[in-house]
Write a sequence for this structure.
């Protein structure tokens, strides 16, 4: 049977998977961004202990594979009595992992902000929180946009790993289809093409958004 | 606990071996890809860019599943470890290729002009200009991809390659002792990745040429 027939027959399950992939990717990237901002705040304002904690968190989570936190949270939370769904567990793992990378990105971006601006805020008498909210954070986000775009695409690809904890996204659907239809590679080939398409689409969307943000 | 640690150590050895194979194979493959990337034949350059787009756009897990399930359908019967090494070589090779290509593109244009005005033969250009500079430009990114190789080897556990992640998962499924086992496995990975990172920085310091590595002379 041709690819078109095969895709017409099994298309809906792929679309379900695609919806789940995009859903997890969007919420996980939002959560990771927020957690990254919170960790950056902790590093800037938390004194030696705060900076040490954030440094340790970033180093640990950057040097372990993405699968381990996924397994740890999915298999570990029930032993603590928390029976959360696979999507939530996977989302938490992805958020924790990507927040570490985003905090590193922010660390580089903060160095790009001119020191003069902080002198200006001090001479204006702005509080540290106001400085962060009005000076640091906007410039941080604008300077990090290319790296954040990269990280978002990586997160999109990492959602495929959630298939190991039975989250019904594209890879999982492909696995189930392989088992149901005994087709060797059609299922995964279609999944691969789908990933290529959404990666290309999201990169394009990010670049358009980047161009519309005004650069100083 | 000691038997768990012994099993995890064996798994870590397999992971390290897989990462080593992936890194060496990937480097060799990347050098081949770069010959295509910088060739005069447009078709080869197009092939390079298409390959990079596919290898970096498809998640590693999907690539691994594709190769693991598709090759037998075409008659090539290979075991999980070989398939894992092959997938890792293809995936990491693409990442190394981009690193090397970036390094070559970072060589200042004036140096190309000087080699031409000096009339250096291509072999000498490679040996005296390209290799030393690209080595120093790309060392941080190269080490980064090496660390990525170790992390990528854990994904191969899904196609039943027995290495550290699969060993940890098997122990957890048997003993339901999630946190200690998973944290122990994380420690193994952390030690492996962190040491390679530090080793890379040390080599970077030792190899630095004043004025050519981008830092202040």
């Amino acid at each position: 049977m041709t690819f078109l027939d095969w895709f017409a027959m099994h298309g809906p399950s792929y679309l379900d998977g695609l919806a789940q992939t995009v859903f997890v990717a969007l919420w996980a990237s939002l959560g990771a961004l927020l957690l990254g901002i919170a960790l950056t705040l902790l590093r800037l304002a938390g004194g030696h202990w705060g900076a040490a904690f954030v440094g340790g968190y970033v180093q640990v989570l950057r040097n372990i594979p993405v699968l381990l936190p996924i397994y740890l949270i999915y298999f570990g939370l029930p032993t603590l009595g928390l029976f959360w769904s696979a999507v939530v567990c996977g989302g938490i793992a992805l958020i924790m992992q990507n927040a570490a990378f985003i905090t590193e990105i922010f660390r580089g971006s903060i160095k790009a902000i001119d020191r003069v601006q902080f002198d200006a805020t001090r001479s204006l008498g702005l509080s540290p929180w106001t400085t962060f909210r009005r000076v640091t954070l906007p410039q941080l986000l604008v300077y990090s946009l290319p790296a954040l775009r990269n990280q978002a695409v990586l997160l999109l690809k990492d959602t495929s790993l959630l298939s190991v904890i039975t989250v019904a996204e594209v890879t999982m659907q492909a696995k189930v289809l392989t088992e149901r239809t005994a087709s060797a590679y059609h299922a995964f080939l279609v999944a691969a093409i789908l990933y290529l398409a959404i990666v290309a689409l999201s990169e394009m969307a990010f670049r358009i958004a980047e161009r519309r943000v005004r650069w100083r | 606990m000691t038997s768990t640690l012994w099993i995890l150590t064996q798994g870590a050895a397999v992971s390290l071996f897989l990462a080593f194979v992936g890194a060496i194979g990937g480097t060799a493959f990347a050098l081949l890809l770069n010959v295509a990337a910088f060739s005069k034949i447009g078709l080869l350059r197009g092939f390079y860019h298409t390959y990079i787009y596919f290898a970096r756009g498809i998640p590693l897990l999907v690539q691994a599943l594709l190769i693991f399930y598709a090759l037998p359908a075409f008659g090539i019967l290979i075991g999980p470890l070989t398939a894992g090494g092959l997938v890792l070589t293809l995936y990491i090779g693409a990442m190394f290729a981009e690193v090397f290509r970036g390094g070559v593109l970072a060589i200042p244009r004036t140096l190309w002009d000087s080699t031409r005005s000096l009339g250096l033969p291509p072999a000498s250009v490679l040996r005296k200009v390209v290799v030393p500079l690209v080595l120093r430009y790309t060392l941080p990114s190269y080490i980064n991809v090496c660390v990525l190789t170790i992390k990528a080897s854990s994904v191969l556990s899904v196609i039943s390659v027995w290495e550290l992640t699969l060993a940890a998962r098997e122990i957890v499924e048997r003993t339901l002792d999630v946190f200690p086992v998973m944290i122990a496995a994380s420690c193994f990975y952390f030690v492996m990745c962190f040491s390679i990172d530090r080793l890379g920085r040390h080599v970077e310091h030792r190899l630095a040429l004043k004025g050519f590595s981008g830092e202040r002379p």
